[in-house]
Structure formats: C-alpha cells, structure tokens
Write a structure and sequence with these properties.
It contains 1 helix and 29 strands. It is an all-beta fold. The longest helix is centred in the first third of the chain and has 10 residues. The two termini are about 20 Å apart.
Amino acid sequence: MSCCRVCFVLSLMVLSSAVLQADDIVDIGLQLPYTTRLVADGLNNPSCVTFRPDGTLTVCDSGNGRVVLIDDNGTVSDYITGFPTEYWKTDAQTGTQRFRLGPLSAVWIDNDTLAVTNAGLADGQETILFFSGPGTADSGRATNSVGPTSDDPRDKGEGNLTGLSLSEDGSTLFAAGQGSDAGTWVLSADVQKRRLSPVFSADRAGITVNSPMATLPEGDSLLVLYSGAGGQDDGLIVRWNVATKQVMAQWTLPGLTDPMGFARMPGQDIYVVVDNNWALTEVKDGRIALVQLPADGGEAQVMVVADRLKGPVSCAFSPDNELFIAQLGPMFDSGQGQILKISE
C-alpha cells in the first residue's frame, strides 16, 4: 500500500465513534468498520448542513423554504420559515420544472446570529439575510443584492447564492454565486455593514471551469470548489488570495463529476469532498472522496471511499469532529432528502 493511500486510510479514522440513538444504518458503500446512520429524513432538497458553535445541527431544507434545527434524537424543528422558493431548471423536452430551491446555505456568525442565503429569488435580487433568533424570512436583516457585472445579455446578476463560509476572524462572509455562466463570481459580505460585493471571478482569471459551489477560508486565502459542467469530469479547487484577489493555485479532481461540497479534516491537510454526480432527471449514485492538494497545484490526489450516496450536496464536521452529509435522497422534489452521519 502506498504512503499516500495509507495516509488517506488513517485520515478516515478521524471520524468519530459516537453513535446517535435509534438511527438507521444506511449502506453508502463505505468500508467497515465505518457505518453511515440516518439522522433525519423527509426533507425536500436539503442543500446545506452546518453547526452552531454550541454544536446544534442546522440544515437548509431548501425546497420547503425553511431552515431547521435537528436535535440528538433526530427531531426536526423549524428555526426560520417562509423563504421564497423557485425551480432551478426546466426540462427542455417535457417542460417539467425541477429542483425546487429556497435558502441554499447558512452559517452561524456566533451562537445568536445566523446568516442565510435568500436564494429562491430571481438572479440579481438575492441577498444574504441575518437572523438573531427564530422567526420568518421577512424578519431577517438583508445585505444588498448584486446586479449584472458584465454587458452580456445573459447576465442578470448574481443568484442561487450558496456555499456560505465565515472568515477565521468572523468579520467576512463568502458565498458562491450562480448568476450566469457568462461570469460567475465568488462574493464577500462585511458582517457588520452587511455589504455584499463580487470579489473573485474564475472567468476573469482565465479559468474556464464555472459553477462555484462551496467556499472554505484558510488564513489569508480562500479555497473555492467549482463543480463545472453537469456530468463532466471537470471539477476544480482554486485557492484565492483574499488580499490581492489573485489565484494562488488550482487543482483538478480526477474521477469526480459534480463535486458540490467539501470540508477539511480536523487537524489535517486532507479534505472530504462530496460528489453529487448530477443529472437533470434523476438522482444518481454519488460519492465521498478524500482529497489531498499538492502544494504547487496540478492534479489533486483523490481517493473515493464511498460510492452509493443519493445526491450528496453538502458536508460538515461537527465541533466533536463527526462528519454529517446532506443529500437529496432517492428522488429530488419529493420530500425524501436526508441527513447522514458517518461513525465507527
């Protein structure tokens, strides 16, 4: 076994051995002794899993236009409701609308303040909303929206805001924009001023891969995960310099077709990446991969450790270093979305 492979296998052992009571075991193709347990189901296109600093599991139940909290017994309770929703795609052959989406991403600023992308609006109208407690979407304090950044008629402004993350000093939010393939942006928002601005453009940096999906601050840099074109092996991770707004390095992700979420292994230079393997008409088997990024960029080292997930879209480690995953479930738009947890 190569040194790299040994490192990957040992890294998997970081996943916690704590087990929630009464969870159902789900087979995602993960090798023993690790198992995957169903934490919650009945969600509609869940799009984000994150944690309050006190450890409270928080999920964007996107298709239902709400953010929910999930306790240790798997009980789902409303936290913020009433977000607008829209259908992301229309099947050109049948005219059927698919993928109902509302709030796509959330992150806690502290134990009292939650930021959520109000992503069920039209491109150019979406904002990030800040909440100081439970309630409804219209009680949130909003940033500005971001309009067109080019003269391209396809560019209606930034939309489908996702991939929220918080800078290490807590002053800045980052979000991935999905407004137009004519010029997708990663945006930032000043937490105090609630001012949202476009900051990193792959297109303007000469990067042809689009669709930023997730962001991850690391010191003075920001890692951004790009999913690329649906169904194609063209995913990319780019490290941006936050101060200069220049590309520091970039890595291809061989073998992954539509990576949509990632998280850094606690205390290690290895990343968990969830690969949705997206399709317009069905939920296909998705993957979990462990990824190492060579210092100078190039081809990332990718090891798939599970290959029977159902449309995974987001992952996060809890404060106790447990790995949680949000996935669409057997069918999107059908209330079959799930939250999973990997344990020993």
